[in-house]
Amino acid sequence: MENRTARITLLIDPKKKQLFEETCAEQDLTLSQVIRRLIHQYIVEYTGSRDLPEWLSGPAAGPGKTPQ
Questions:
Q1: For 12-50, how does the pLDDT look when each residue is reduced to its tens digit (9 = 90+)?
Q2: What is the DSSP letter of 50?
Q3: Which residues contact 47 (CB under 8 A, 6 or more apart)?
Q4: Are 40 and 56 in contact (CB under 8 A)?
Q5: What is the distance between the alpha carbons of residues 19 and 14, in angstroms, rounded to a whole number?
Q6: DSSP state of 62
Q7: Distance in Å from the first CA to the final CA of the chain
């Protein structure tokens, strides 16, 4: 697992943000948890043949887990 954090700033339509916040709340998840999960899935899907670090490809990153 990473031991540092970095900030990402993005612009999003306010209506989509509101719906995203509501949807996350219904699932008892934070926006950050969902975004980290989406980034993780994107990396795994599109890295091609590159080797992934253990913290990204190991059992702790499996289904149902929230990558940090």
A1: 999 999 999 999 999 999 999 999 999 989 988 898 888
A2: P
A3: none
A4: yes
A5: 9
A6: S
A7: 7
